[in-house]
Amino acid sequence: MKAYLYRIRFVASVIAVTVLPILVTGAVLLRAAEQALLEEKKQKLIAVTEQLDYVLSKDFDAVLRERGMLTAPREQQIEALNRALAPLTDRLAAAHPGVGVGYYAAGLDAIVTYGPSEETGRYVGEPIPPDHPGRRVLRDGVIEVAVGQQVRGNIMNAMLPLIRDGRIIGYAWANELMSSIDVQLAGMRRSIYAILGIGCVVAAAASGLLMHRLETILAEIKAGLRRLRFDLSFRMKRLDGEPGEISDAINKLASDLQASRSHTETIVQSMDSGIVALDHCGRITAWNGAAARMTGLAVEQAVGQTYTDIFAEEEVLVAALTDALHHGRTVRDAEWRPARSGQGAQVVNVTTSIWRSPAGEMLGAIALLDDRTEWKRMEAKLAQAKRLAVVGELAASIAHEVRNPLTSIKAFAQILEEEWPPGHDNREYTGIIVEEVERLNRFADELLLFARPNEERHVPSSVCDVLDQTLALVEPGMAKQGISVQKSYAASLPAVLASPELLKQVFLNILINAQQAMPNGGSLRVEAEGDEREARIHVTNDGPPIAEEHLLSVFEPFFTTKPAGTGLGLAISQRIVQAFGGQISAGNVPGGVRFTVMLPGTDRKEEENEKTGAAGG
């Protein structure tokens, strides 16, 4: 049940990590698109009003004067202006379908023309209401775009003041019904919703495939570990990709454990003291030759049996083991005279201890048996017993770890690391296991995460020196692969303010990426150029070009086209370069692919710091 709930939580977490960013991004894009559409409509309507202002080369009085209507009644003046200006507004309305345009005369306080005339001509002669936005335009002389219920209905209305000889004679307007704009917005929303839906489905499907692959890998690893609990000779089959390193590490660990177990068993069997180890159920799990001699029972007779059956007649030993196993009480130097001794052991010293896991859980009990018949050698025996106690604890701990359920590879490796002295070869293996287990934990828990660049001390660094140091690491492998390396450094390159180690990591990621792009050999060109303000490093390989749709994604975390890749190398490189104030880019060039790293020189950095300091002051 716990595993099922964990799987549900894991699936939900993966989906949330992949789908929620898409939804949030979609919501932001939708809002931005809506604002952009409304802004585009606004600018379009303003442009139409400017056209209206331009085509009206005279003021309204001049138009009336030309027609001899300057002193005519108001209604006749409105009619005369409508006849003169309606063709203009109708042409503009025809050029912009769905847009209503017209003029408003301040002196007549009336609409003098409203195109298209066949649809909106009925409004000619009407004044605007007192709260109409056009009143503010007439008063303040500024352009205004208003959305709401106006003369034509619910519209977006752009109004431009008509200024002639320094006075406002009226205004020109262009408007569009919000219902038309809403139709366009609805179509745009449907398109964005469809794209978001497809993106979410693809993300969910990719998450499902990823989870299935992880479950398959984890299931194989768990099955292998369960098998190794009982059979250290078992070897897991090699998994594909990076998990193959884990399976190899587990097999290496099993091999080391098997060798260590054999070594430990040899030590235990060579001890003069008897070792008896019990699990939490009282079954004997360890039994050496000394114990067999003292008790008269061979290993095959004892291992796997319960101690109460084997030592039914030995009250002292049964009591000591019972106290340790069931009551947590240990005994030291208890005398036991075996009723069924082997080769003359008459008096046996019994010392018990509790067998516990690293978490403090009781796993069983251990009894150490010492032959105490030669009292004259008591001092030597006591000194030897101390040494044997240490070896016994070591042997018991190793035996405990061999038989204890391997609940955590990492914990097991750390325990083994504590058992081996500094400089022991096996410490390297445990380090590998810890590293690989941590990598699997990071990969399974959050599909991912790339780190921020380490906050190391930045110092003036030579780009050429760092490039040479990095090339020295990869050139031998490239030479074996048939890749020739050509270097070209400009004579004068500025020093850059950076961490040499992190900068080396950037170049190493780019060079390894180039090497992987040329599995059958090729040519690699490393060029460095620049001036006193900037250094530019170009790494060009003649491998296959990057697909156009992937060019913008190569620096995204977890994007990779390689079956065994994690997609973090170039993403981390970008983060490091950005931390240095530079940029990194990738592009296809004739005959290959080029990565370019641009880093500011120390002079430019100092200028930027001075500007920042001056602005702050």
Automatic annotation (TrEMBL):
It catalyses: ATP + protein L-histidine = ADP + protein N-phospho-L-histidine. It is an enzyme of class 2 (transferase). Residues 260-315 form the PAS domain. GO terms for biological process: regulation of DNA-templated transcription. PROSITE patterns: HIS_KIN, PAS. The chain crosses the membrane at residues 6-33, 192-211. One of its GO terms (molecular function) is phosphorelay sensor kinase activity. This is histidine kinase. It comes from Brevibacillus aydinogluensis. The lineage of its organism: Bacteria, Bacillati, Bacillota, Bacilli, Bacillales.
